[in-house]
Amino acid sequence: MTGGPRRKRDSAATKEALLQAASALFAERGFSATTVRDVATRAGVNQALLFRYFGSKQELFAAVLDHNSTELIAGQPPEGLPRRILDGLLSADQLSGEEHPIAAMLRSYSDERAAHVLREELGARYTAGLAELTDAEDAELRADLVLAWLFGIGMVRSVLGKSPLAQADPDAVARHVTRGISVLLERTDLPDER
Amino acid sequence: MTGGPRRKRDSAATKEALLQAASALFAERGFSATTVRDVATRAGVNQALLFRYFGSKQELFAAVLDHNSTELIAGQPPEGLPRRILDGLLSADQLSGEEHPIAAMLRSYSDERAAHVLREELGARYTAGLAELTDAEDAELRADLVLAWLFGIGMVRSVLGKSPLAQADPDAVARHVTRGISVLLERTDLPDER
DNA sequence: CGAAGGTGTAAGCACTCGCTTACAACTAGT
DNA sequence: ACTAGTTGTAAGCGAGTGCTTACACCTTCG
């Protein structure tokens, strides 16, 4: 998996390898089921280095979330955000290997240390992005409800693997969800104004 | 907390005490963060008895889910099910103590042993109940999407505790969700039939 | 009564966890 | 070449995990 013969005395590369390994493992198993020994082994690195560079397992998790959500959100138009999350969630599961970055959140939120990191990350990035999609007064609440739905779908489909949702055609799911979201984001707080 | 002076040699009462303690702790902390020692201590019982009566931690979890979902679903009309779940989720959090039975699922699903128990329990009971609320062809898929939304809300609000959803007025949330659900359950697979 | 079996308890086994420590190996500056 | 500082490693600490075992207690029935 690693190209070179053996990495030697390159702190930047070591840090990056740890970050990559941690990202994959947190997405596959979640925060608490991932051990620092696993991460270090997957990165081909001694586990003591993990603590040298990241301080603790929790800080490593925060670094992974920050890295990944920057990739998914920053520099992309917010209109496509729900669809981008949904597509990732609907395609990444089932078949092997690659896990959506959001899977790391879905599998980790029930650990209090991970949840603390998540609250900040989600509020600052995802809710803020989704709230731009409506001009209703309670935009942020609606954004949270959208986020909750997407997360719930990821939870039931990708993590729990429950049928029929887990086996359903991605297009069919996307059609239902897109319709639901647009209804949810429609302005209703001013009942009749026209 | 326990009324009597000391329970003595009553296997049925011991089993019930373990079930109650486990139900509360699984809801508060989830499957993997709950230890068998905690359960036994809370029940006022030696932990070896837990294994005598339930065999393993996983079987204890299954027994708790079965016990609780019977209470929530059986003998109740399915029309009220989404609302009943939602109300529980929206009221139980925040203030102290009492946790919704569903919280045990929300906090446990990312553990593979718990997930296995959950898939069966959810499919057989919750999805089946919700699917009765629509006559669309893909009733069960829609039911799963409703379930996913309710679970997502519970996850973001009650477990994660993320604002603004966690602090939002229950009625406001219920209004949004009820509207979304009814749209989601409307028949759309036959585009124009009237 | 006295054996039998259900019920409760203390102790501990074998293992894993996050994290630390003591030390070796390498590189860079002078 | 010699020192100083950075990078890497092996070993292990202390705490906690699910689960088991050996044994004491109490009740019941022949």
Mean pLDDT of chain A: 87
Cα gyration radius of chain A (Å): 19 Å
Order of helices and strands of chain A: HHHHHHHHH
Instruction: Give the assembly state of these chains.
Output: homodimer
Query: What composes the largest sheet of chain A?
Result: none
Q: Given the helix and strand composition of chain A, which structural class is it?
A: mainly alpha
**What's the helical proportion of residues of chain A?**
55-70%
Tally of alpha and pi helices of chain A = 9
Strand coverage percent of chain A: under 5%
Shape of chain A: globular
Q: Measure the end-to-end span of chain A.
A: 62 Å
Can you count the beta strands of chain A? 0
Protein model, in words:
The structure is a homodimer of 194-residue chains. With 194 residues, chain A is mainly α. Chain A contains 9 helices and no strands. Chain A has helices at 11-29, 36-43, 47-54, 57-73, 81-92, 101-106, 112-131, 139-160, 170-185. In chain A, α5 (81-92) runs antiparallel to α9 and α7 (112-131) crosses α8 (139-160). At the A-B interface, α7, α8 and α9 of A face α7, α8 and α9 of B. The structure holds a DNA duplex (30 and 30 nucleotides).
